[in-house]
Amino acid sequence: MPSTRRQFLHLTVAAGTIPIVTIRPIEATPAMLGTAIRNVVGEAQLRTGKIRLDIPPLVENGNTVPMTVSVASPMTAADYVKSIHVFNEKNPQPNIGNFHLGPWAGRAQVSTRIRLADSQKVVAIARLSDDSFWQVAADVVVTLAACTEEVN
Amino acid sequence: MSVARTIIAAMLLVAAPALLAGEIPQDARHSGYSFMGPDTRAMQDDDTSNPGMLFVLDGEALWKTRSGSAGRACADCHGDARESMKGVAARYPAFDKALGRPVTLDQRINLCRANHQQATPLSHESRDLLALSAFVAHQSRGVAITAGDDPQLKPFVEQGRALFVQRQGQLNLACTNCHDDNYDKHLAGAPVTQGQPTGYPLYRLEWQTLGSLERRLRSCMSGVRAQAFDYGAPELVALELYLMARARGMPMESPAVRP
Amino acid sequence: MASALINVPPKAKRGDVIEIRTLTSHIMETGFRRTAAGELVPRDIITSFTCRYNGTEIFRADLFPAIAANPYLSFFTVAKDSGKLEFEWIGDNGFVSTASASITVE
């Protein structure tokens, strides 16, 4: 009654090659990502550093991906983070969220959970009180669920 | 030390019911929790970050809300669920004398609605039914599973086990092929778990909502390209009962979070 | 019924940086999904979240369809005075949900 392991492994290979048809909307393009970023940053220079993006490099399910953005800032009246903006490369839309804070936050850190339709780049940008912009990017690999369910 | 451990192990072997071929011994049983990454674990561990707790909150409100033509709330008969419902979900599916067969916790809620509240049944996977079952199951968090101990359930546990080892679908796979023989391996990047039903109803990231064990079983069946049993079908209830009996002694986690 | 879970420390020392966590029930339907019949499911998301501390806005978020269902947000503030934290979620189809929590600052 129990199958041999070899038979089973053979079957899992077969399962892996069965095409699972999912309707995927048109992806945002790197150009759309660039435009979305320019809408926030304008012509200002984008610098790297100060900002950190914590997101699992390999996520268990693209439908709910935990993410934390933090910025190294004293958060004083003279030097603080005004806003944090998060973007993605390949979801149907390039925007994920804009978060507005101020010196009263004490710590420039925001966490949320996002959706990633596919493996892609996520970009976070911080606007500081001197109107300088700082960015960081992370590549995230989204594994597809082994068994998908019919859409209800 | 090692002698003591041997004695304890020997005692456990004597005390535990004989394992059937392919079954996972008690000390090797692992919840789906142990197969998850740290981020998903953290989501389950903290009640204010576990989205399943939103349903528990709704369930608590429903528990106190009068429903049906009898104008009665769950609380009117059962009082404080923290007392009256503690350990209940760990015993389900349970034998119903009037029906002569096991019923799931969801079916019990609807039987209560029909018989005691004179209310219409809540449809399967509806927000209200999931909320009520999550609230009830949450009262058993940490309680060891004892479902299937009732001797009247024996033939139904057997039926569930027969279904568990029966090959089905276009991929011709039985539950046991993955969840007894090949847990710890991966299928398309996702770990294959033991299929222990310790946290239902649970919040699945894939679903982005709470769902029942029946929903999970049905999606497994679609996964092997089999015709899934209908919600509430005796076969699905028997399978749920076998899975709970197979997880005997494991602590309940409801509402769990899973990928 | 839109329920929310709020985590605010009930007590804090003046000047402490405290974490605020919120989780609210919402489907966050993207507007990009189709039914089996091929029809587009209309967008239904929360578009804005605001937190006020004794009446003053301390945190605001603009949310897009890429935010997961049942939105979770964690952010920080300095404990200044005892009082009330108010939370407001606004979304498509006239969605409005509010919650509040009190804090004692010593």
Which secondary structure elements does this structure contain, and how are they paired or packed?
The complex is a heterotrimer of chains A (152), B (259) and C (106).
Chain A: H1 5-17, H2 30-41, E1 46-48, E2 51-54, E3 58-59, E4 65-71, E5 81-88, E6 95-100, E7 109-114, E8 120-128, E9 133-142
Parallel strand pairs in A: 1-9, 3-9
Antiparallel strand pairs in A: 2-4, 4-7, 5-6, 5-8, 8-9
Chain B: H1 2-15, H2 38-45, H3 52-63, H4 74-78, H5 81-84, E1 94-96, E2 101-103, H6 105-117, H7 127-138, H8 154-164, H9 175-179, E3 186-187, E4 190-191, E5 202-204, E6 209-211, H10 213-223, H11 234-246, E7 257-258
Parallel strand pairs in B: 5-7
Antiparallel strand pairs in B: 1-2, 3-4, 5-6
Helix pairs in contact in B: 3-7, 6-7, 8-11
Chain C: E1 4-7, E2 11-12, E3 17-24, E4 46-53, E5 56-63, E6 72-78, E7 83-91, E8 96-105
Descriptive account of the structure:
The complex is a heterotrimer of chains A (152), B (259) and C (106). Chain A contains two helices and nine strands. Chain A is an alpha+beta fold. Chain A starts with a helix and ends in a 10-residue tail after the last strand. Chain B has a single domain, classed as Orthogonal Bundle (Cytochrome Bc1 Complex, Chain D, domain 2). In chain B, strand 1 (94-96) and strand 2 form a beta hairpin. In chain B, helix 3 (52-63) packs across helix 7, helix 6 (105-117) packs across helix 7 (127-138) and helix 8 crosses helix 11. Chain C has 106 residues and is mostly beta strands. Helix content of chain C is 0%, strand content 53%. Chain C has no helices and eight strands. In chain C, strand 4 (46-53) and strand 5 form a beta hairpin. At the B-C interface, helix 3 of B face strand 1 and strand 3 of C.
**Quick one: CATH class of chain C?**
Mainly Beta
Strand content of chain C: over 45%
The overall pLDDT of chain C, averaged over residues, is: 96
CATH architecture of chain A: Sandwich
Overall structural class of chain C, as computed from helix and strand content, comes to mainly beta
Q: Biggest sheet of chain C, open or closed, and with what strands and sense? A: 5 strands, mixed
Taken together, the total number of domains of chain A comes to: 1
N-to-C order of helices and strands of chain A: HHEEEEEEEEE
Predict the CATH topology of chain C.
Immunoglobulin-like
Task: Please state the CA-atom Rg of chain C, rounded to the nearest Å.
Answer: 16 Å
Biggest interface between chains: A-C, 33 and 30 residues
Helix content of chain A: 10-25%
The assembly state of the depicted protein chains is: heterotrimer
Q: Any low-confidence stretches of chain C, pLDDT <50, length ≥5?
A: none
